Amino acid sequence: MSKINLGLNTICTHVGEVKDEQFKGAVSPIYLSSSYEYLDVDVKRYPRYFNTPNQEFLAQKIAALEHAESAMIFGSGMAAISTMFLAFLKQGDHLVVQNTLYGGTVNFIKEEFPKYGIEYTFTNGYKVEDFEAALQSNTKLIHIETPSNPLLTVTDIKAIAQLGKAKGVLTSIDNTFASPVNQKPMDLGVDMVMHSATKYFGGHSDICAGAVASSTEHIERIWNVGKNLGGSLSDMMVWMLERSMKTLGLRVKEQTKNALKLAKWLNKHPKVSKVYYPGLKTHPEYKLAKSQMTGFGAMLSFELIDGLDSQLFQQKLNLIKSSMSLAGVESTMISPHLTSHALLTQDERDAVGISNQLIRFSVGIENVKDLKHDINQAIEKLK
Ligand SMILES: *Cc1c(COP(=O)(O)O)cnc(C)c1O
C-alpha cells in the first residue's frame, strides 16, 4: 500500500512531478530523449522500457490515486489491458470475464486468445455466483468491469476479490467508468486495476492512453511482457496526460454531481421511459454502489418513450455532441446499438437489454440548466 496520505486534489496536482532542478520551473519539464547514458547509471532508460523520466514519474501519480504500490502508463487502454492479460495468462490457462464488457476487450479476447491457446468464459451475469459458476481448475484470472457499459450494472468488487483469494485466482478490474475519484478497487482487495486514460484521466477528448496499477510484484511481471509488446506512450503525450490529470478530481467531481442531478431529472421526465444510473434509488444495485463508490460516476443511459426517435433526437441537440468516446469535459451522447454494440445481432442486444431507443450519456462539466434546456428543445423538435 502506498504511504501517500495526501488528499485527492493534492495528489492530482503534485504527486509524480518531475522536478526542474536546473531552472526551477513550476511544472514538469518534458524529457524527449529516446537515448540515455548507460554507463554508471542506476536505471538504463529507454522509452519502450516504460522508464523515461516523464513515464516513471506520472506512474507514481496513478499509483497514488489508486492506492497501489506501482503503476505503468500505456499507449492506449487496450495496450494496458492486453499487456496485463498476456502477463498473467499463458497457453492452457483460463480467464473468467464479465459478460457486459467494453467491446474492444471482448474483441481482444475472442480474436486473440485462441491463437495463444488461452481459454475463457464469459459469465451469464454480473453477480458473484455467476463468476463462481464459471471458474475452472485452470482459471488464473477473473476480470470485471463496474459500472459497466452501457447499462451501468454494478458488480460487488469486494465479493469478487474475496472469491479470487479463496480460489487462488487473481482479480482485475476495468475502472475506467468510475475513475479513482469515485472508486478505489485496490482498497476492496482487487489485485490489478486498469484504465483507458483516453477517458477521465485525459478528460479533454484529445489523448489516447492507458494505465495499470497494482503491487510492485505484479507490475514487474506486466513490465516484462510490456517491454516485448511495445505499448508505451510517447513522452510528449505523457506530459499532456500529467497536465490533464491535475484537474482529474475537480472535473470528475463536477461531472458526477451533474450526472446525479440529470439522472434524477430524466427519471421524472414525461418523455423518458427509463434511466440507468447507479445513483438512483430505483437502480437494482443502488445500495451496493453506495457502499463501494464515493460518487456514482458521470455516465448514465436512458431511453426516450416509444415514438420519439433516438437518432433524430441526437441530431436536434445543439450543445451535447453525438460523439463516439466518453468522459471529456464536454457532454456527449451515443446510441450503443449503432456504435459499441453494432456488431451484435438484434437478438443478442435484446438479450442483454440494449434497445434501439437506448442513449448513453457522458455527462460533462457544463451547467446543468443548459444541458436540461438542450435536451428539452431537442425533444420539442421531435413532436
Ligand atoms: C475506451 C475504453 C477502453 C479502451 O481504451 P482505449 O484507450 O480506447 O484503448 C477500455 N475500457 C473501457 C471501459 C473504455 O471505455
UniProtKB/TrEMBL annotation:
Keywords per UniProt: Aminotransferase, Pyridoxal phosphate, Transferase
Name of the protein in question: Aminotransferase class V-fold PLP-dependent enzyme
MF annotations from Gene Ontology: carbon-sulfur lyase activity; pyridoxal phosphate binding; transaminase activity
Superkingdom field: Bacteria
Modified residues (N6-(pyridoxal phosphate)lysine): K199
GO biological process terms, semicolon-separated: methionine biosynthetic process; transsulfuration
Entries under InterPro entries matching the protein: Cys/Met-Metab_PyrdxlP-dep_enz, Cys_met_metab_PP, PyrdxlP-dep_Trfase, PyrdxlP-dep_Trfase_major, PyrdxlP-dep_Trfase_small
A UniProt-annotated Pfam family: Cys_Met_Meta_PP
Organism: Winogradskyella endarachnes
Family note: Belongs to the trans-sulfuration enzymes family.
Cofactors named for this entry: pyridoxal 5'-phosphate
Keyword Transferase among record annotations: yes
SUPFAM superfamilies in the cross-refs: PLP-dependent transferases
GO cellular component: cytoplasm
UniProt keyword Transferase, yes or no: yes
